[in-house]
């Protein structure tokens, strides 16, 4: 208990900084656009019920409408066919909503090539310098893409060939699936690259990582405020029974 009390005191005094990794959720929040023959997620919508008026004189509240995978959100394993018999978002043990996090920084590479793909050699080189990936923790992929987060067109970076955003190679996705990570977090609209529909297999991060019972976090911000190692991430999705994911508030705890 003394340790928890000291931990709480450090948050109050600023010895531990709480960094918000969450993108604001509003009507212009970028969403994933799939080819037209497939179903589409709904943009975020806020519908006023009452606002201190004749519909409700002393209160303000809204209905909301959106998809599970809108804005900063968590992908549960059952989001992908390879994980269809695994956890839905409400079944994730709460102890797995908190874990250590490390950051791999490829901002320069993604600036030079928006289709940049993280590969196995990148993961091995990172570990040679910083140590093993954390058991029961997150690997967060920093690309600088969150700087585009308030501009849906720039964020999608699409042309007639589709979106051009960074991601992982199929080999790196398979590598991550074999680790003891909780999951993989990105700044982009999804954990796969914009061109991943053309990979073999298509969308390899979803295929391998979710199929291994791990989780995805997307549309993260403020990864530049985290150390390479040493942060703790709290990822709190709504416990939607049967849900394949949920918008989430994602926070990082960083010792200062």
Helix and strand element order = HEEEEEHEHEHEEEHEHEEE
Cα distance spanning the termini = 22 Å
Q: What does the overall shape look like?
A: globular
Strand order of the biggest β-sheet: 4-12-11-7-5-13-14
The percent range for strand residues is: 25-35%
What would a concise description of this structure say?
With 256 residues, this protein is of the alpha/beta class.
Can you describe this structure?
With 256 residues, the chain is of the alpha/beta class. The chain is 20% helix and 29% strand. The strands form 4 sheets. Strands 4-12-11-7-5-13-14 form a 7-stranded mixed barrel. It has a two-stranded antiparallel sheet with strand order 2-3. A two-stranded parallel sheet has the order 6-10. Helix 5 packs parallel to helix 6. The longest helix has 12 residues. It is globular, with a radius of gyration of 19 Å. The two termini are 22 Å apart.
Map the helices and strands.
Layout lengths: L1 H12 L2 E5 L24 E9 L2 E10 L7 E3 L22 E8 L1 H6 L4 E2 L1 H11 L7 E5 L9 H5 L1 E2 L2 E2 L3 E2 L1 H9 L4 E4 L17 H7 L4 E4 L12 E7 L7 E11 L1
Parallel strand pairs: 5-7, 6-10, 7-11, 11-12
Antiparallel strand pairs: 1-14, 2-3, 4-12, 4-14, 5-13, 8-9, 13-14
Provide key terms for this protein:
single chain; 256 residues; alpha/beta; 14 strands; globular
